[in-house]
Amino acid sequence: MPIFSAPDGTALAFHLAGSGAEPPVVCLPGGPMRAGAYLGDLGGLTTRRRTAVLDLRGTGGSAEPADVATYRCDHQIEDVEALRKHLGLERFDLLGHSAGASLAVRYAARYPGRLSRLALIAPSPRAVGFDVPSAERRRIMARRAGAPWFAAAAAAYESIAAKTATSTDWAAFAPLYYGRWDAAARQHQAGEPGQRNGAAARIYNATGAFEPETTRAALGAVTAPVLVLAGELDWIASPAVADRFAALFPDGRAVVLPGAAHYPWLDDAPAFGSALGAFLA
């Protein structure tokens, strides 16, 4: 597990996988603040390209910082830049999932010329200030009506929306993150508690982390090709959000995977791998 130093001296880890002659795709995990192990092989991406998955500070193999305020998303932009320098890359391919896409977008806004390609997988809309109305979330969720777990999940969402959710509510709601609530999804979900830094997660999206209007304007300078990949069943990064996200970039396009939700590489690995692999080829 390679280690490098962040600008403030925090020791950060990243995980290399795959093979190929091209430089690795730098991957930023979401959660927020979940160790990168949950990304797995990203639907077989590692059979096509090398990947360098960063464990954000305080997660996985990376050390906790001396100043916990640096868990905030905008404070971690320079961690990504430090990794670029450590890898010796002038320009590179960057991928971010969910809350990790917020960090990828903040990096792109600050360093647009460093990117060869940018892939945003089920991106959180926070960084650009897009809102998914509750009515739209409920409409997306309602497509799962009839599943044996749906009634409990739908009731849990109302507690989540009211900000009164308990751990029991979040557990009941878990199936809605996946296109299929099967054994693989359950196993993936079961790994989250041991991978996520809850205290850091509460700081990641704290007040001041995002400057949506400024960021949206800055993304117009990103000339690299951009892929926004969403699942049609994702209530976080809905297909409508994906379209709006892609439109922020001069060379952006959205791809929506049928039957997939917030972890599209688990829901349909062949379709995900084909779409992402073609983009990064």
Question: Major beta sheet, specifics?
Answer: 8 strands, mixed
Mean pLDDT: 96
Q: Spell the H/E element sequence.
A: EEEEHEHEHHHHHHHEHEHH
**CATH topology category name:** Rossmann fold
Q: Provide the CATH superfamily.
A: Alpha/Beta hydrolase fold, catalytic domain
> Which class of secondary structure composition applies to the elements?
alpha/beta
Would you state the CATH class?
Alpha Beta
Shape: globular
**How large a portion of the residues is in β-strands, by DSSP E?**
15-25%
Roughly how many Å is the radius of gyration?
A: 18 Å
Strand line-up across the major sheet: 1-2-4-3-5-6-7-8
Question: Separation of termini?
Answer: 26 Å
The overall number of domains is 1
Residue windows where pLDDT falls under 50 for at least 5 positions: none
Total number of helical segments?
12
What this model shows, in words?
The chain has helices at residues 77-87, 99-110, 134-142, 150-161, 167-173, 183-190, 192-195, 198-204, 212-218, 239-246, 264-267, 269-280; strands spanning 3-5, 11-17, 25-28, 51-55, 92-97, 115-121, 226-231, 252-257. The protein is α/β, with parallel strands linked by helices. It has an eight-stranded mixed beta sheet with strand order 1-2-4-3-5-6-7-8, sandwiched between helices. Helix 2 (99-110) links the parallel strand 5 and strand 6 (115-121). Helix 1 (77-87) crosses helix 2. It starts with a strand and ends with a helix.
